[in-house]
Write a structure and sequence with these properties.
By secondary structure, this protein is mainly beta. The protein has 2 domains: 85 residues, no CATH class; 146 residues, Immunoglobulin-like (Sandwich), CATH 2.60.40. It starts with a strand and ends with a strand. Keywords: Signal.
């Protein structure tokens, strides 16, 4: 077997580019080394050979080891296993969470408190968003898909609305709308809201220019008027979540 010995820091760097693995093995801080296997792993799902044709797992154009051995146990990247069984897997580094099948978006306020979540699922020509949130000011709030992931709970760093067709803002704008434009979120007196909305033109295909993976869901302080460019006069950005990829 082709095995090499690397420091745990080196292996963690190789895997954490999106190739996740079981049981928190990336935290093997007490280990002086990990054994890394470069040999191809064979996968048989429901009697069919699902082994990759070239014998290498490509995690976002970055070749990674097929498996590692730590403390007598063999681990494999979760993304590789997910690819073999035909189920996409998504990693959210901010909440340190894994979602299988559909992206699960954790929503935060500007202080970093969790206030809700959204689940995204592909449908014909769109992405269906099912959102649940709490601890917001009652009333209507603009909500959009923004072009980038934010950093440090500074929602301004998420950039503008996701707008791959370079249109104007708003469903009521004759020159609009952005792909990232969503109907207003109506928050009740209890500070809670739920919203199910089909984001037309959006995609969860990482190779599509319409993909919303790795972007942000942002909630604003005020109601979106549906026509004022570029953001519907919806005010400050008060909450958001990063769409995992």
């Amino acid at each position: 077997m082709a095995r090499k010995t690397f420091s745990s820091k080196t292996v963690a760097a190789a895997f954490l580019g999106g190739a996740l693995f079981f049981s928190g093995i990336s935290y093997a801080a007490t280990s002086t080394h990990l054994e890394v296997s470069l040999d191809r792993l064979n996968f048989f799902i429901e009697g069919q050979d699902k082994t990759s044709a070239d014998g290498k797992f490509d995690n976002g154009s970055s070749k990674v080891p097929e498996s590692i051995v730590y403390d007598g146990t063999t681990y494999i990247p979760l993304r590789m296993a997910a690819n073999m069984i035909g189920q996409p897997i998504f990693w959210d580094g901010l909440s340190r969470s894994i979602s299988m099948g559909n992206p699960y978006v954790v929503l935060y306020d500007a202080k970093g408190n969790r206030i809700g979540h959204a689940v995204l699922s592909p449908i014909n020509g769109a992405v269906k968003m099912t959102l649940s949130v709490s601890n917001l000011t009652p009333g209507k709030h603009g909500i959009h898909i923004h072009e980038k992931a934010f950093g440090g709970f500074d929602f301004k760093t998420a950039g503008g609305h996701f707008n791959p067709e370079n249109k104007k803002h708003g469903h009521a704008n004759p020159e609009g709308h952005h792909v990232g434009d969503i109907e207003n979120l109506d928050v009740g007196e209890n500070g809670k809201a739920e919203l199910t909305y089909d984001i037309e033109g959006a995609s969860l295909d990482p190779n599509s220019k319409y993909s919303i993976l790795g972007r942000s869901i942002i909630i604003h302080a005020k109601e979106d008027d549906g026509k004022t460019d570029p953001s519907g006069d919806s005010g400050d950005r008060i909450a958001g979540g990063i769409i995992p990829q």
